[in-house]
Amino acid sequence: MIRAVDLGKRYGDYVFRHVNVELPERGLVALVGPNGSGKTTLLKIFAMLTEPTEGEVYIMGTPWREARARHRGDVLYSHQEPLVYSGTVEDNLVCNDGDVVDALGLRPLLRHKAKSLSGGYKKLVTVARVLACRPKAALLDEPTAYLDPEKRRRLLDYVTQYAKKALVVWTTHYPPEAENSDAMYEMRDGALRRVR
Fold first, then answer.
1. What is the count of structural domains for the chain?
2. From the DSSP assignment, how many helices (H) and strands (E) are in the chain?
């Protein structure tokens, strides 16, 4: 699904270099590491939002530059910070999928103004916007941040089920949360290594 070969990114100094990884067509893949280690940057490169400095990324076998046009809707990224637009929750869900809405407990809020929601619900809307479009790869940047334990559980349950038919890559600062992932990688000191 997504393959990186000698991938590097720098903003002045290198954030990371020599990243080599091959992610499967389906499964739940956790990316852990300290703040500022490059997890978000890596996801944004995989989502074709940020260009790599060096190396190559292949999305479904297609090189990164070509994939931007060919596979843009197949790989979707959910922002680290809650991101909602003007209008209702329903307006914010570009692809309105009832299963996602119900699984994440958003149905009672569909007619509410998205900007008036709590941080936790804004985060759920941000993640639901991606999942409702049913991408082949959902890249979720800290999807459980801002969530209370019940919302966190609901989201993780849904994401675990979704990962049986698509690729889900998610970042977290809570390694115990990542224990149920099919694979776990750690980004640290400019390098990516597989933990399990």
1. 1
2. 6, 10
Global confidence as pTM? 0.96
Judge whether 77 lies within some domain. yes
Assess if residue 14 is contained within a domain. yes
List the domain range (segments joined by +) for residue 135: 2-82+130-194
Classify residue 38: in a domain, yes or no.
yes
pLDDT, tens digit only, all 196 positions of the chain:
999 999 999 999 999 999 999 999 999 999 999 999 999 999 999 999 999 999 999 999 999 999 999 998 999 999 999 999 999 999 999 998 999 999 999 999 999 999 999 999 999 999 999 999 999 999 999 999 999 999 999 999 999 999 999 999 999 988 888 988 999 999 999 999 999 9
Q: Are 36 and 70 in contact (CB under 8 A)?
A: no
CA 163/CA 138 separation, integer angstroms: 9
